[in-house]
């Protein structure tokens, strides 16, 4: 057997080049789409059928069903796509990714792609150095496309020739003549290869080459394709293990959808593969002088038709599937779960461009929690029972600690996203959002300072008079109004942030604060209350004023964010 270690390394390198080309092309197409992909994706998934079309088109473009499923998960997390709509995207993604098989069949084995890939690369190369990001992304996409088919030629050339290496065929023959057991074995091989390579497209290319070179018969190549359909579900499910409930449900559906598809296909496998082979032979798409050349077309038709039929079998039962998935992946309802990240995770479940949507939704959730702390403090100030006071203080303390963790996670997530390939628009958006995170954290810190002041009052037996409580309630009302304006600005869908309204509330808080400070001086001078009461009263007023200022800063940061999102 004349196949050396160097030859094996060449084959591994060729597969690596194929993977890099696919990754470069996929990321570049997503970057070209950029912000537009968000609105298009959201608009085209209004029902399960449009979701299927969206998944098909996106997967056919970026040639990665796993990446398309991760996009769907991201939009579910961001609240732009419902679970039902995401199921349609998942089903469509499986069909879209079959385009790669037809490209390989039509061009991969009929032309010397090296002769065309290099000139095409020459077209894309100058664009890579363009100062215009969109042109640069197009250049990277063209080079990725060139590398994809250049590497396919290398794979075809470095795979051992059966005529010169008969030992390989004799080795494989031990596993190709076991009947249905061979089919199951090669389904497993396809799954494992896809998990290892982390790309069903690359495994598909290797399968086509193996069949074209005569390593394995067409039927076992089809079995490997079934395995690749299973293997491609692993990446989203692994990513979703650290994700929220929506990501887990979408990823789990992806697994079950492909698994059930493989099961029903295996039940009719021998009949169906013979049927597909008969169709290709009767059409005579390729000269029958070389029957081996028909195999890639048979595999491509098997891959596409299987996924289309699987889609048609399941699309009518999406509502029932949704209920089953919710039952299989229930909401745990654990205590304190509401404080955790809801829309993003420490893992990257999406492209850098689309992660910004998740961060935006998380900031809205974060703001809602920081707003609640003022209400907690108002109740704490009125609590006279020591046991209930300590329990409430402990809960607020834990609440503040978790909020700090959320702030760190969101800021870290945005920092991680900023390291990816981003448009200038998205990069500016991240900078504005990081400022917004800081201001929300200041609101939380000021609220907890209030909590500590109230706790100090309780330990020292300080109680405010009804007149003082009336003034504080008026200040609390103004601060809550300012936080309400901030919340409204956070949730506005258009690019109009009402900074003027936020500024007006801040001015009212400042004016009332100055009025109460003047009155406080007079009250202390007249000995209406002692120094300790006056200090506590002044500290609470100061933190209320600070919260109002931070709420105003949030609206300003939002205004900057809306200009670039």
Short description:
80% of the residues lie in helices and 0% in strands.
Would you give an account of this structure?
The structure is a single chain. This protein has helices spanning 5-43, 48-62, 65-77, 83-96, 99-108, 113-128, 133-158, 166-176, 180-197, 200-212, 218-231, 234-240, 245-267, 269-283, 295-315, 318-328, 352-382, 386-418, 424-460, 466-491, 499-525, 531-564. By secondary structure, the protein is an all-alpha fold. Helix 3 (65-77) packs antiparallel against helix 13. The relative contact order is 0.08.
Rg over C-alpha atoms, rounded to the nearest angstrom: 31 Å
Major sheet size, sense and barrel closure: none
Give the integer mean of the pLDDT values.
75
Structural class given helices, strands, pairing?
mainly alpha
The number of domains is 2
End-to-end gap? 60 Å
Beta-strand residue fraction: under 5%
What string, H for helix and E for strand, traces the elements in order?
Answer: HHHHHHHHHHHHHHHHHHHHHH
Tally of helical segments: 22
Q: Approximately how much helix is present in the residues?
A: over 70%
Q: Write down the overall geometry.
A: elongated
